[in-house]
Fold:
Amino acid sequence: EAQVTQNPRYLITVTGKKLTVTCSQNMNHEYMSWYRQDPGLGLRQIYYSMNVEVTDKGDVPEGYKVSRKEKRNFPLILESPSPNQTSLYFCASSSAGYRSYEQYFGPGTRLTVT
Amino acid sequence: DAKTTQPPSMDCAEGRAANLPCNHSTISGNEYVYWYRQIHSQGPQYIIHGLKNNETNEMASLIITEDRKSSTLILPHATLRDTAVYYCIVAPVSNDYKLSFGAGTTVTVRA
Structure:
């Protein structure tokens, strides 16, 4: 089954404790991205990757890091989480070219930073 | 990117067609119209997209006006599981593949 998986699905952590949210897709997609969703602000892109070793900032990259060492994985790293990073996070992937905007989203990771 | 305008909410009776409007009067010639939906706190789900011709798939139909300034997503036989926020997105063919989600339309299907 074609899917994007995220782990963990729920996470409660404390300020400053480094964490990683994993994202994996099984569709051999070139493009992957991370979004966060907050009430009243909608979905906003954090980082994206066009292919292995190619990443770029989205609209709200501050406080986040990403890496793309393998095509299937695109982890989101919060090196020193703060309460304003409490949010619902989604990973997405798509193939390149014409179908690039037909993105598959993961189930979401709900992060709470206290 | 072109801005879209959608009604904030609408109700639909189960089994009836749901017609979701979207205004995108500033759309450019190379911009597609995409529709996604998000069922409560789940990941958004791609529905359909089009450039200027009407499109249909197993989920919905997309009607784009001839001047491309507006479009309508049609769910032909709405079910309770279609209750969701529906997003109309206009996106150019570009290198960043970013989807700019607005507020969308909250569709409630009632039994």
